[in-house]
Amino acid sequence: MNKAPMALLSAKLACLTIATMASLATMEAKANWVGLRNRNGILQLKTQREFDYFALALQWPATYCRRSSHCCSSNACCRGSNAPTEFTIHGLWPDYNDGSWPACCTQKRFNEKEISTLLDALEKYWPSLSCSSPSTCHGEKHGTCSSPVTGDEYNYFLTTLNLYFKYNVTRVLYEAGYMPSNREKYPLGGIISAIQNAFHATPLVVCRNGALEELRLCFYKNFEPRDCVTEATQNDMGSSSSSCPSYISLPEFVSRGKFLSAVVT
Ligand code: 5GP
């Protein structure tokens, strides 16, 4: 064999090896090994690489508050006539396409002062609907993992609020005729279609006892809408909306009234 092409080939291979080593080193520098839970709760040891997409998780308070039996000052379910009656934010979650997700990516501590100008809006649109304190791992569980895209704490919360206002799920459902009711049941397919028609992407719907509890909208990292369900998550979950029957309710908020307000601890 001619030596010139051999020399060229080995030079190319050397370059490739150096490039691969360099990118592996970068990956190693960026990734840290952590225990991650998949949707079935199984703990897997994985490198925490950068996420693939965002899920904006929106809660339907009337359903969520039914199981929130305990009242405390931070539980918005107990705000009487000021309790939230439309979709509120559960979180902006960075997710992997395989159905798992990273959490607590940096050691940076959550600092309320950084978001002091957003607190009123957050109280209203991102309220806590229970008394249990969220697992924050000393920092912001999801915000720290979003930081390659959303930047600092302030921007993470502002980005989430802006997405919530831009993609108004409550308005889309009302305009399609899906009004809160404690008698009606609505076709799950109709609710999904209303969102698809409005935002050109398929949401994920989560139910509890036949009632809509959470609706997730998904976004590419440039915040363009995308489908929430990937092939991997579909296989994992059996179907895109396995927790919901084919007809679901969108309950009206039942105020906990004076009795429960009085026992606020
Ligand atoms: P739950 O058990 O209420 O569904 O979830 C508990 C917590 O796990 C959520 O508040 C959220 O922090 C996290 N979580 C649940 N599902 C997902 C998901 O699909 N993606 C991400 N990133 N976090 C999730």
TrEMBL record:
The keyword DNA repair does not apply. Self-incompatibility (SI) is the inherited ability of a flowering plant to prevent self-fertilization by discriminating between self and non-self pollen during pollination. In many species, self-incompatibility is controlled by the single, multiallelic locus S. One of its GO terms (biological process) is RNA catabolic process. Belongs to the RNase T2 family. Residues 1-31 form the signal peptide. Keywords: Disulfide bond, Endonuclease, Glycoprotein, Hydrolase, Lyase, Nuclease, Signal. One of its GO terms (molecular function) is hydrolase activity. InterPro entries: Ribonuclease_T2_eukaryotic, RNase_T2-like, RNase_T2-like_sf, RNase_T2_His_AS_1. This is Ribonuclease T2-like. GO terms for cellular component: extracellular region. It comes from Trema orientale.
